[in-house]
Q: What sequence folds into this?
């Protein structure tokens, strides 16, 4: 008997550990890993940072408790029987075949338990999908090989790879794809959804903690699928307003060293950049195949999260994008000379 209890405890105790963690952090998430170029802390569905993921975790914990009770009960009885009745002389077991009461009981019990779990699951699903009552921010997300575009249709903003949202508002995201199927997931903020070409998948999340959360493309979309990261930056309402007001401005006019770079991008007939990139305020930089560069300097990383947004990395990227991210759709027909690269980087770093 003592052994039986010990065995049950040995199985049950690690599960208690899982519950102890599930409360989530009291404060916001840790900052981006300082020693990695671009990395996020390990994402966890056990540390929810939105109303919706907290509801999902609540359901998970509820099912886990019921499952644990049943597990401990069944295993406990089994272990008890094994030890209590071990080493007895062979005898015929009690015959219960055809016992209607027992048959009904052990059919009905699991059916009732599963029905209860189904009920709670359906309720959580509809809670998560419920129309938001307060303020709503509409975002359109477009998956590209291999980066994410974020549009705010009401605010007339287009940016890439870093989604900035205000704390406390409901964020309604219409997820789309430009080419192949991608997956859109930030475990702390919302469940995983697919970005399917020609189809709009909708999701909603209401952030409850400020901070930066890592996201990742979760469908194999090509060789650099793992290098298709993004982040969601949840900021205070005031900070979001300031960010949005700035994003709505055209690119600032170049001064000093940056002028030669601006001139190359806007006016040089040999420049390929304009076929793929937009810089608002320029009549020529109106390409849409690559990320919008109008406020590039405000983003903390480039190229789907493989490089921090520093002048050195921008230089390396422009020298040879294929060496940084083999297969990227940024392919230059003619490599740039060093002076041109320096000029462009000098300009790009001013694009606050
Ligand atoms: C054929 C299209 C194409 C051309 C031409 C092109 N780019 Fe790109 N560019 C892209 C794509 C696509 C990405 C995103 C790559 C990725 O993350 O996989 C990109 C990324 C970038 C980035 C990083 C932006 C970010 O937010 O990740 C910069 C900066 C950039 N390009 C600058 C330039 C400049 C300057 C030129 C001209 C010398 C240029 N590009 C020419 C398609 C292009
Ligand atoms: Cu992808």
A:
């Amino acid at each position: 008997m003592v052994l039986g209890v010990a065995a049950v405890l040995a199985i049950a105790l690690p599960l208690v550990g899982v519950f102890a963690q599930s409360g989530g952090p009291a404060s916001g998430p840790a900052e981006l890993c300082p020693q990695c170029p671009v990395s996020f802390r390990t994402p966890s569905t056990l540390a929810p940072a939105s109303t919706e993921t907290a509801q999902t975790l609540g359901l998970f914990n509820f099912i886990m408790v019921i499952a644990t009770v049943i597990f401990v009960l069944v295993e406990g009885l089994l272990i008890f029987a094994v030890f209590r009745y071990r080493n007895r002389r062979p005898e015929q077991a009690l015959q219960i075949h055809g016992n209607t009461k027992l048959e009904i009981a052990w059919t009905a019990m699991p059916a009732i338990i599963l029905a209860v779990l189904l009920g709670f699951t359906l309720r959580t699903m509809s809670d998560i999908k419920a129309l938001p009552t307060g303020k709503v921010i509409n975002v359109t997300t477009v998956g590209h090989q291999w980066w994410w575009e974020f549009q705010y249709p009401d605010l007339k903003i287009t940016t890439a790879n870093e989604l900035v949202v205000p704390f406390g508002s409901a964020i309604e995201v219409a997820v789309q794809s430009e080419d192949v199927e991608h997956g859109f997931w930030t475990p702390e903020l919302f469940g995983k959804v697919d970005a399917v070409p020609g189809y709009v998948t909708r999701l909603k999340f209401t952030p409850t903690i400020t901070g930066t959360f890592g996201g990742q493309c979760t469908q194999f979309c090509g060789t650099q699928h793992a290098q298709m990261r993004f982040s969601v930056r949840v900021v205070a309402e005031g900070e979001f307003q300031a960010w949005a007001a700035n994003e709505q401005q055209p690119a600032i006019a170049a001064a000093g060293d940056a002028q030669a770079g601006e001139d190359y991008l806007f006016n040089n007939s040999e420049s390929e950049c304009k076929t793929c990139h937009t810089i608002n305020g320029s009549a020529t930089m109106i390409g849409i195949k690559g990320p919008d560069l109008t406020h590039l300097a405000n983003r903390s990383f480039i190229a789907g999260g493989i490089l921090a947004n520093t002048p050195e990395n921008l230089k390396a990227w422009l020298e040879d994008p294929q060496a940084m991210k083999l297969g990227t759709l940024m392919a230059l027909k003619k490599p740039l000379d060093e002076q041109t690269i320096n000029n462009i980087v000098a300009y790009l770093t001013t694009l606050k």
About this structure: Residues 139 and 277 are 20 Å apart (CA to CA). The first helix runs from residue 2 to 21.
